[in-house]
Each structure stands twice: as structure tokens, then as C-alpha cells.
Amidophosphoribosyltransferase (Geobacter pickeringii), 466 residues
Amino acid sequence: MKLYRPTEECGIFGVYGHPEAANLTYLGLYALQHRGQESCGIVSSDGRTLFSHKSMGLVADVFGDQEIFKKLPGRSAIGHVRYSTTGDSVIKNVQPIMVDYSRGSIAVAHNGNLVNAQTVKDELEAWGSIFQTTMDTEVLLHLLATSKQNSLEDRIAEALGRVKGAYCLLFLTETRMIAARDPQGFRPLCLGKLGEGWVVASESCALDLIEAEFIREIEPGEIVVITKDGVSSHFPLAKTEAAPCIFEFVYFARPDSYIFGKNVYMVRKEFGRQLAREHQVDADIVIPVPDSGVPAALGYAQESGIPFELGLIRNHYIGRTFIEPQQSIRHFGVKIKLNPVRDILKGKRVVVIDDSIVRGTTSRKIVKMVRNAGAKEVHVRISSPPTSYPCYYGIDTPTRKELISSSHTIDEIRRYITADSLGYLSEEGLLEAVGTGTNPYCKACFSGGYPIRFPKLAAEPQLDLF
């Protein structure tokens, strides 16, 4: 049985002006593997021609043969790891997308989701465009190809002016690399330096792996052009209020990354501290649901004074596929990933810390696992508010009718997951823990307040638990 977790759509990474560009891009994608485990690809440039290698699978599998890098020559490269949000899970949708058109060759890697892609695609098809993939990203290439602007930067700016939604983009031509971030800044993107070369990555943890220097975050609405003459910055798009995704802090980003001006690990610990202030309970131990629940559990333990323990051990060596028994092992999906430490849990009043509850099925199985290991009480604490609305900005979440908190009270959810008590971090506590100041965040998955409206919102909740 599949365990549902929200999945991030993509991670992007690019290197310009380094003799080992493709190898470094491989390492960067390896560091960003948590942002997409469905497919990956790299496109490189030797100054005259673009070269591509991409496939379904994990980075280490797709680029496991060193001979592949001999087919990716040059001093510049961009790469991509993907979950599908728009488009099917097939080889033709693996990025970066590379095309030849009247002005040369260009490749693009995209992290995000264009909410008006279908509308623009319909217009382009009416004028004769033929699409090769089912991804929203391809719309941008058609807009570039049909633009009458002279410079590539202006063509990109014109194309981005036609689309709405979340995007962090990397373009690669024979001679330049261009990065762009949407005006709301939904997804993180940063700029680094390695020797004489430049690096762009979805998260700073990818810079750390290749020992690149973190320079700065690319700003919302910014287009960064990197050529042999250096780096230039442009802001051609209409300014709007920034709305970075707060769920990057809750779950998606790696805890060692620096995004939106803050360290993810420290923010998650503060989530746990605030959660302890809002939802105290008499208990003997605090345990996380690994791995994403660990920093918040540490913060909860420190604030509450209740000892922290690793009561659930995660198996980190699960392959992409496994044969699941039909009836012989109950809750097999959870058990293959998590195993309780009975000597820690037996006879204890346990606080279980997790980052979110989506459908509730996984939480239900975890609570029963902890209870079956001998826990006397199980109190669940969630380091984010209830996830009641789907994301339309590049995160693979269920429809609203499948989100448990969209149609059930907290007490109904508590009864469904069979916990003795259940407490969520409040939206006010979440923002206080982040320390927003004057910087707002996108909280649409909690509040339903979408910064950019999606053309077709999901149907009303219909999930029936009982």
C-alpha cells in the first residue's frame, strides 16, 4: 500500500563556466533528490552544441555509468529531478526539455506549475503549434519560439509575462545560462560561485555538496543572465507582493538548506517549541516520525521538558519497488519504512510529532504501531496547521475531497487516527515561529487564500472516514 506524502514537483541545478559542469550537475541533482524521485536529466553545452541524457529513475541509477559523462561535454550544464504535477509520468516528459528552433538550440528546466498553461496552450495550438509533451513547461518554449523580440532575455521576459503561477527556471543555450523566478517567489532558488564558474540551485544544500560559495537568493521576479562576461540581473516583470511557500519550511526543503532568508532546521525546531506552548500534555517521552518530524520533536522536547527519544526507526534503504504481500502482513506499507523500539515505548505516555496529516491513513497506522509496541497513551502533535486545501503551485497534493481536514473536525480526525489527543500548530503560531516580519507567505494549503487563483478549483469535500 502506498503511503501518501505530499511530493515536491522538481529540483533544478545549473553550472556555468566550469570544466566539470556535467559531473557537478550530477552531484547537485543528487543533493536535490528529495525534491523529485521519478526522473532526472542533464543537458550540457560545449559552446557550440547542446548534449542531453535523461531517463526515468533516481539520479544514481540514471547517471551510474561514468561513460555517460563523456557524452555530456562542455563547461556549462543544467539538470532536473522531477515528480509529475502537470503531465504524465513518461519518458517524453523528463526534463530538461531541449529543442532546436530558428535562433539555435535551447534547453529548459522548470520547478513549479503554470496555472494558466492550458489556456495559453489552446491559443498556441489554434495558431498551429504542435506540442510534443503534456507538460506545462513546453508552453514557455513555444512562446519563446514565436516571440518577435531580438534578445533572448527579452523573449524570455515576454514569455513569462504571458504565464501565471509558480516557476523557477533554468535556460541553457550554446553560450549562456539564464535563471528566472516568478514574481511571487513561490519556490526557492539561489546563486552560488565555484572558482570562476557560477552555480544556480533550488536549495543551498546542493551548493554545499560541491563546495560552492553561497552568494545570494535569486529574488522574486528576477531574471539572472550568466555569460562569459559575468552575471547581470534584470527585473522586467510587473512587481507584486511576494508569497513564498511556507510548506517548504514544514516539509519539502532539506533541513540543512537556507531558503527565504532562513535556515530550515532552525525554523522547524521553532515550530516544535511553539507547538509545545500551544498543546501541552502530561507525557513521558517525545518521539518524531522520521525524518521530517525530527527537528520539530527536538524543539517540542526542549520547550516542554519531556525527554526526546527515537521511538521509531526508519529504514533508509528501501528500493523504488518491492513485492507487497496481499494479506499476510497488516500495515505493510508503514512497517517496511518504520519500526518501533519496543523497550522505549512500552508502558510510556508518548507524544508523536509529525509535520502534517494529509489523508490520515498513515497517521492512523503509526498510532496503532506505537500502541501495539506497548505505549500506554499516544498523543499526536502536528507541526503545521490542518492541510485543508490542495496546492496549485507545483506540489502534488490530493484534491480537497481527499484531504481529511477539509471535511472533518480535529476531534473526528483524532478518533479516526485512534490517538488519545491531537493538536495542530495554529496558523498564527506557524507565522510567529517563522518570524515573518513584513514578509508574507503563501498559506493557501491551510487557509484557502490563493495568491493566484486557479481556473478550476476542486469539488467540495466528500471524504467519508466513518
